[in-house]
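As a warm-up, study this chain.
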Amino acid sequence: MVHIGNDWDEILAPQFEADYYKKLRAFLAKEYANSTVYPDMYDIFNALKTTSYKDVRAVILGQDPYHGPGQAHGMCFSVKPGISPPPSLKNIFKELHSDLGITIPNHGYLKSWAENGVLLLNTVLTVRAGEPNSHKNMGWEILTSEIIKELNRREKPIVFLLWGGPARAKRTLISSHLVLEAAHPSPLSAYNGFFGCKHFSKTNDYLTEHNLPAINWSI
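Now compare it with the structure written out below.
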């Protein structure tokens, strides 16, 4: 049913056979047939395809995908090449520059982070065009919780960056790794604790303390 192409296939096989996922799949089939849905159905699992289970060093947890044309491609906060960075991503880049002095890029394609061990995971993986949270409570939250539980079981240290309410709600699933929490980087909330959180440097400090390579946050 789902082919990711790395160790996630075996890890998540029981989820893809579960009743909740079969119901979700039926719902999505109707949605993609009758509405405009983002991302493209072949891009839904790009985060898992690009960052295998064994390679995860950090997880950025978002909410649901961008709901505008041409933006979402299966990695939270990232947009396709040639698409202007949305406001939340611009704020992420501002904090990155403030924290580590990294030059703010002129694009918002975060695949290099994913290839560097950052799992860019939303709590909900699809959305109807122009309707944020339209695929909430349809089953995605169960799957993404199971993904986090599997990562929590891993011995090798991971840093979880939880930005915004839906992401922070997953905090109780994590018991044995570093968890960094902040407000969502949206312009509506970034000044309530996202700006100044220094999550990028804190992530690298934790990884190097545990003899793991730091993340290259430049893109």
